[in-house]
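Hi R.,

As promised on Friday, here is the backbone we talked about, encoded as structure tokens. Could you run it through your design pipeline when you get a chance and send me back a sequence?
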């Protein structure tokens, strides 16, 4: 319905996972194995669905993750089940998703810009980078970025690069110092209890055949190229594009005994989503007309036509304000706090600011 637009409208509603990342000061030994005392009381996420959501089949292999924190580090563990355990890339900052991989995305201040990406394969080869903006908003990847102090490990329940029934899963552990994240965090500091980051995880899984005792990517018979990879993620984006930070999960930094049910999506974030829908409509309007519009009625009508998700065809009744120039726009609505407003800009950034 909207394939000719630069920016696809997601085919999912706004229901990101909410996860209580529990404080955990137990001793930690990095080895990639999640079967240890450190992780025992930490719950798994739900199994990852396809990146496009429920319109796609349930992934053929199960993937789940865990998160914990202490005053210095964010701890991430993931269990990737399945018997196709292989990897080829050995050089740091290679394009790791050309192998099967596990990926981490972190937006510490939920402005959908200046966020982190990290990928690793079953050889524990890693790629870390900083995104200035989402690619759809003309963002650039900063491949020279490094997570200083990060530690990673892989544990394989089976054999790497050797097909066989003894292959069951591979698991990863990633330790990220908050000092490596705080440049893009609110107030440039580590999180406090009750605060949240926006996070997503992705598993890239290529379709393979076994030839001469080794895994080979399955080829398209017509083109001779590998078939498209599967993308299984924690928080579906409704498009085959993980770089929709507005739909990533909410990871709340919790005390040791708190549950995910103790937290909910803040009202300001719900209002950001209403602004985001208008952003999709504005971008589509620009594609059709070469300029932006200051008419809410025009945007509402366009949104009702282009959204593939019924719940996203309308916006809440809020006192929106729109300002446009030849090549930019700004849409605002009141924030939850008195005398505050939320703004979304044509480059995708969202922010909360004091009014007046």
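Update: got your reply. Pasting your designed sequence below so it's all in one thread:
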């Amino acid at each position: 319905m909207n394939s000719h637009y630069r920016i696809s409208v997601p085919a999912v509603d706004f229901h990101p996972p909410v996860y209580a990342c529990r404080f955990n000061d137990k001793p930690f030994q990095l080895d990639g194995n999640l079967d240890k005392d450190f992780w025992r009381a930490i719950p798994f996420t739900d199994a990852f669905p396809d990146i496009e959501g429920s319109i796609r089949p349930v992934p053929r292999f199960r993937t789940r993750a865990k998160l914990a924190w202490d005053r210095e580090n964010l701890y991430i563990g993931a269990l990737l089940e399945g018997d196709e355990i292989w990897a080829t890339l050995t050089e740091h900052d290679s394009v790791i998703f050309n192998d099967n991989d596990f990926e981490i995305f972190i937006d510490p201040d939920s402005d959908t810009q200046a966020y982190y990406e990290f990928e690793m394969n079953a050889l524990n080869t890693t790629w870390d980078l900083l995104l200035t903006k989402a690619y759809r908003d003309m963002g650039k990847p900063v491949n020279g970025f490094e997570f200083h102090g990060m530690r990673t490990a892989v544990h394989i329940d089976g054999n790497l690069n050797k097909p066989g029934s003894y292959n069951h899963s591979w698991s990863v552990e990633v330790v990220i110092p908050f000092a490596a994240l705080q440049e893009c965090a609110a107030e440039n500091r580590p999180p406090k209890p009750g605060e949240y980051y926006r996070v997503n995880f992705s598993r890239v899984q290529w379709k393979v055949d076994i030839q001469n005792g080794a895994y080979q990517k399955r080829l398209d018979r017509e083109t001779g190229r590998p078939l498209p990879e599967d993308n299984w993620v924690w928080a579906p984006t409704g498009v085959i594009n993980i770089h929709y930070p507005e739909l990533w999960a909410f990871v709340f930094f919790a005390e040791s005994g708190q549950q995910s049910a103790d937290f909910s999506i803040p009202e300001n974030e719900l209002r950001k989503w209403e602004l985001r829908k208008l952003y999709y409509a504005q971008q589509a309007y620009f594609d059709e007309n070469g300029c932006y519009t200051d008419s809410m009625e025009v945007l509402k009508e366009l949104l009702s036509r282009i959204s593939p998700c019924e719940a996203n065809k309308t916006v809440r009744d809020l006192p929106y304000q729109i300002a446009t120039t030849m090549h930019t726009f700004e849409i605002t609505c009141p924030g939850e706090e008195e005398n505050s407003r939320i703004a979304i800009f044509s480059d995708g950034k969202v922010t909360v600011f004091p009014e007046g």
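One thing I noticed while checking it: The chain has three helices and 18 strands.

Thanks again,
M.
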